[in-house]
Amino acid sequence: MQSFLAKEGAASIGEFRSGGAVSRRDYRVTEGRFRALFDHAALGIAVVRPGGRIAEVNPALMDMFGRSVEEFAAVTFPELIHPEDFVAESEQARRLVNREIDSYCRENRYRHKDGTWFWGRVTVSLVPGEGDGRFAVVMIEDIDDRKRAEEDLSLFRAVMDASHEGVAILSPTGRVLYANCACQRLFGEAGESVVGRDGRDFLPLESRVALQKVIAPTLRLGHSWEGVLKARDVRGRAFPLWQRAGAVRDTSGMVKFFFAFMHDHTGQQIFEEELFNAKEAAEAANVAKTRFLAAASHDLRQPMQALGMFVTVLSGREMDEKHAALVARIRDSVMALEGLLDSLLDVSKLEAGLVVPHKANIPVGAVMARLASEFEPLCAAAGLRLAIVQRLANLLGHRIEVVSREGKGSMFAVEVSLAGETAAPLPSQLPLPLSHRGAAVVVIDDEPDVLDGLGLLLESWGHTVLAATSAEDAIRRLPQLGRKPDLILADYRLQNGDTGGQAIARLRVHLRQKCRVPAIILTGDTAPERLHQAQALGHRLLHKPVEAETLRAAIDEALSRRPRNRRSGCKGPARKAAATPPPVPDTAGGPA
Length: 592
Hints:
Elements: H1 2-17, H2 24-40, E1 44-48, E2 54-57, H3 59-65, H4 69-73, H5 83-97, E3 103-111, E4 117-127, E5 135-142, H6 144-162, E6 166-170, E7 176-179, H7 181-187, H8 205-220, E8 225-232, E9 238-249, E10 255-264, H9 266-315, H10 321-352, H11 364-381, H12 387-396, E11 399-405, E12 409-415, E13 440-444, H13 448-460, E14 464-468, H14 471-481, E15 487-491, H15 500-511, E16 519-523, H16 528-536, E17 540-543, H17 548-560, H18 565-568
Parallel strand pairs: 13-14, 13-15, 15-16, 16-17
Antiparallel strand pairs: 1-2, 1-5, 3-4, 4-5, 6-7, 6-10, 8-9, 9-10, 11-12
Helix pairs in contact: 1-2, 9-10, 9-13, 10-12, 10-16, 14-15
């Protein structure tokens, strides 16, 4: 710059000596102004000689590059330019030297003293002259922050445009400031941008109401909002729109803009509807399964009940050893089949909530040994787990643990409470209570085989039996009994939609007694609602097929609770019934 000013000064002096208007004093003033501008300029300024030699640099350029005047003198200007920018820079410099252009402006990367690169906007002008008298004035503006911001913005746009999720930025008034490609595809069409439009243009009236009353207040309170709204695109197509929206605020708390992530929720909605329908279908299938099992169980239990009674009666008769062994084998087969049916009953009782746990001390060793011998072969064949065990364990408060190792096997454990004292061993067979022989029993069942089997069994125990297929049949044939009945045995599900509870109630009304004849309901129905209804009647409930010992104990217990006629004032049966009473609801058959 000093040599530049010296030449300019020489020209001015020459003009002064030849009568020019510039004086020596004016030259010094001009030189001072150039020096002040050079030293205090915010831009980096350099004087570059032919070959790229740096003759002068101002303080701003030294700060920008982190170099001193001496360090600048040791390098040429091209050495400070990034190799990727050097070719284009050289071409512009060539055109400038050849006076094809007066100046040029470019954005290059320059090397700092510490080896890093920064962006600068360079403007180069050539000062004409001969030989070494030519030089270039180079001015560089540091634009590194702006370029990096642009790179970040470009990266952001690339990520947003590659996203399958629609992204939109809206002004505080709702105008769309930015929409990525997915958002554009969601609402717009080719050649028509959604940017600049009011975001409410894409919402029907009901969604606008939700936006005004719910979403906007939520966002202004500083909360985010997520949900599904009805929306429409520029073609008018309506679709469900999922979105998660939020707001960005300035330091004063004012909303700068709103943002939203969104996608077409149609596919998810269809999936959810299909999932709901599948769930409904599964639940319906489960209900149908329960009903089928209940119906199948009932239909199977009826002949099983009759078969069990017949086998019990047959077992009580005298026969040789060969026939006795055959009857014993038949009895064992019947008991095994009854066990399978009882499994269905256990599931229904658990679903109905009718199982009441009763905790007692038991000899664990004997129980576990029996279970192990029964189930070890099955567990070895296939790894099974049943819902009955877990539910019973939950009821009893026992913890079940299983430890499995693939390819090795599984260990199952049940944790039970420690008894306070040693439990007495269970007898191999519980003693049966003493039967009340000679009782008059009314049996009502619409299955002939069950009716015959129960009749034969009760008669073998010394009871007098009146077998009937309905309450009306029993009332009509009561005179054949010759006495007041001591007990009523009734199947729960009878013909024409009648129940055992209704049959018992009709008999009690017909007998016109102050006391009530004890009654037992037999049922082969395992449906949970049926079990609830039967239990609500208040009678003793036995599930078919009923073992002979269980039935005998229940009969003995019921007969032991019947009141004596003298003390109760019970009257005998009416000699003649005027008419059969109308059906009585189940609840009328409850205890007094």
